[in-house]
UniProtKB/TrEMBL annotation:
This is Mitochodrial transcription termination factor. It holds the Pfam family mTERF. It comes from Artemisia annua (Sweet wormwood). It comes from the Eukaryota. GO terms for biological process: DNA-templated transcription termination. Belongs to the mTERF family. Keywords: Transcription, Transcription regulation, Transcription termination, Transit peptide.
Length: 370
């Protein structure tokens, strides 16, 4: 990767904040990065501004030599230094050499090392035996190849950053998930996308797992279990119970409520106000039954103002003109993409000119009065 495009100003030198009693020292360091690994002048200035204490080329030369010993080319070295300038101040033999060796021996390529440093500039400054190796071993437990390991490390740089506070919790929680039968893919997704889930205190985490199975009725083998876990760990149990009570207040049976949660637990993440508006519209205005709605839980994820009400309006026109029968249903049309729904409307343009315009106008209208 060339850093020739990293222009920080038309006058980049005014951002060069390295303080020096001897201006020649600045030029020496800039020229060193330019000549040693091919930095542009602008990129060299930007990089050195982040390590203002660096006055000599002695340590940087040793750092670069270590990288070259491991056959990293100038482009790799330049990128690593640009993303992690503090590396220039590291002890090359004690700090860098053993860590680079571990990564390369574990199947990571030179390019992988660049990507990992970009995602986590402090990577090569963490303790080898206290952080890097434990994290590597944990990730290797749930992936099958080097490419997956790199991807997880890139997306879950927090595993290193929060090591002291959460690593033991993470290990214990992931073990619980494995014991309960979750797949490696599900566990990796939690690590990379839902860190708040796996960093819980293990006792709290276990109680949440039990609550999802026993109180919400979502078994571990269900595809919805992870969705339930991600939702439940963000909410207090009292908050969830309040939302379930709303359904009960609208006449839903325990079986219907259980189905509503089991088939799409994400619905519990919506506010009480949204759930009430949803129930008022579908049950009180349109006359839908709780039995029907408990089987059409994806409707709740759709905006009433932007999608449901505008589509219901034109759907009602089509039904009134007897241009549609029992199919498609409103719930089916609500789940259409915008492109697909407009294509559906266009087939009635001869019978009802301007129907699509009526639809788009109703979106603006319902949003204005929302």
């Amino acid at each position: 990767m060339s850093h020739g495009n990293f222009l920080i100003s038309s006058h980049p030198l005014k951002y060069f904040s390295i303080e020096s009693s001897n201006p020649n020292e600045d030029n020496i360091m800039v020229n060193f990065l330019i000549n040693s690994v091919g930095f542009t002048k602008e990129a060299a200035i930007t990089t050195l501004s982040k390590v203002p204490s660096l006055k000599s080329t002695k340590n940087p030369e040793s750092v670069i030599n270590i990288f070259k010993q491991f056959n990293l080319d100038n482009t790799h070295i330049k990128d690593i230094i640009f993303y992690a300038p503090q590396i220039l101040t590291c002890n090359p033999n004690k700090t860098l050499e053993p860590k680079i060796k571990v990564f390369l021996e574990n199947g990571f390529s030179r390019s992988d090392l660049v990507q990992l440093t970009k995602a986590n500039p402090s990577l090569l400054r963490y303790g080898l035996h206290t952080r890097i190796i434990p994290v590597l071993n944990l990730i290797r437990t749930f992936v099958t190849n080097d490419e997956q390991a790199v991807e997880v490390m890139r997306k879950a740089a927090w595993l290193f950053c929060d090591f002291c506070a959460s690593f033991d919790n993470v290990s214990a929680n992931l073990l619980q998930l494995r014991i309960r039968g979750l797949s490696n893919d599900q566990i990796v997704r939690l690590i990379t996308h839902h860190r708040w889930v796996v960093t819980l205190d293990p006792l709290t985490f276990e109680r949440k797992l039990v609550w999802i199975v026993e109180e919400l009725g979502i078994p571990e083998h269900s595809k919805m279990f992870v969705h339930g876990l991600c939702t439940i760990t963000r909410l207090k149990e009292s908050t969830i119970e309040n939302k379930l009570k709303i359904l009960s207040d609208y006449g839903w049976s325990e079986e219907e409520i259980a189905k509503f949660v089991r088939t799409n637990p994400v619905n519990l993440s919506y506010s009480e106000a949204k759930i009430r508006r949803w129930l008022d519209f579908f049950m009180n205005e349109l006359g839908y039954t709780s039995t029907y709605l408990s089987s059409s839980t994806c409707l709740l994820s759709c905006s009433l103002e932007k999608r449901v009400k505008p589509r219901y309006k034109v759907f009602s026109i089509l039904k009134e003109k007897k241009l549609v029968g029992s199919k498609p249903s409103l719930s089916g049309l609500v789940n259409f993409s915008e492109v697909k729904f407009l294509k559906f409307l266009n087939q009635f343009e001869n019978e009802l000119p301007g129907l699509a315009k009526t639809y788009t106008s109703s979106i603006t209208e319902t949003q204005r009065f929302a």
